[in-house]
Design a protein that fits this description.
With 260 residues, the chain is α/β, with parallel strands linked by helices. Helices cover 48% and strands 16% of the residues.
Length: 260
């Protein structure tokens, strides 16, 4: 089977699977190219409320297919950065479900997700120093924001792998699950995400990224919270549902005419 990215949408959750098991799900140039348009399509799908990125079988992603680096290392890195930035800019919550190796470009993709849940046997590494490659500045800054400068330097300087326990302690992952429990936990948690206000999630995601025009965007999101006509927006609905002891019926969606 040709290396590919598979996708499926079920109950509001889009699952994207890195499928190249012959090379531990290493990303080929064509696979990197597939990422931005694939994500654009899922972002535009109003049925999608959250996204899970994972790997086929027992490995998340062992990085870039080295053969693509041999042909044109500069182009390969550019493709990886475009994919990473597209994932980081995805307007809905994203979660990397990691088992096995999450190395090089795999760690790049996982770090671009909002959250990372890992099987206890997962291994993480960022390995450009083994190949004499300069890790992209945007990827480095993203890594530093997750784990701090000291751990980022340890990972980048050495290229050494760390286990899931250390990844959890440093903030590289958010939860570590016992063997066999990852899929159920991801399914349960994404069900929670899909039930929550997309307005709250979209605003929080943007604020966490920090923008130069932040003050203006604060006003924008306050307006979105109040929007919705006589019935009010998601805020009014959330408060009413709480007082009435019922599940809220949030209506705000990205691109719905009230969104970005």
């Amino acid at each position: 089977m040709e290396p590919q990215l598979r996708q499926a949408v079920t109950h509001g959750v889009a699952t994207v699977v890195i499928d190249h098991p012959a090379k531990r799900n290493a990303m080929t140039a064509d696979m990197w190219r597939q990422v931005p348009p694939l994500l654009a399509g899922l972002a535009a799908d109003r049925a999608v409320r959250t996204l899970v990125l994972t790997g086929e079988g027992a490995t998340f992603c062992a990085g870039a297919d080295i053969s693509s680096l041999r042909e044109s290392p500069g182009e390969a890195q550019d493709l990886a950065v475009r994919a990473e930035e597209a994932l980081a800019a995805f307007p809905k919550p994203t979660l990397a479900a990691v088992r096995g190796y999450c190395v090089g470009g795999g760690s790049q993709l996982a770090a671009a997700c909002d959250l990372r849940f890992a099987d206890e046997g997962a291994l993480f590494g960022i390995t450009p120093a083994k190949l004499g490659i300069v890790y992209p500045s945007s990827s480095t800054r993203r890594l530093v924001s997750l784990v701090g400068p000291a751990t980022a330097k340890y990972l980048l300087f050495s290229g050494e792998l760390i286990d899931a326990g250390r990844a959890l302690r440093t903030g590289l992952v958010d939860e570590v699950l016992p063997a066999g429990d990852l899929d159920k936990r991801v399914a349960d948690f994404t069900k929670v995400l899909a039930a929550r206000s997309q307005l709250t999630q979209a605003a929080a995601k943007e604020f966490a990224a920090v923008r130069p025009d932040q003050a203006a965007r604060d006003d924008y999101w306050s307006g979105q919270a109040r929007a919705g006509g006589e019935a009010g927006g998601d805020t009014a609905e959330g408060v009413a549902a709480f007082l009435e002891r019922r599940e809220p019926r949030f209506t705000w969606t990205p691109g719905s005419g009230q969104g970005l």
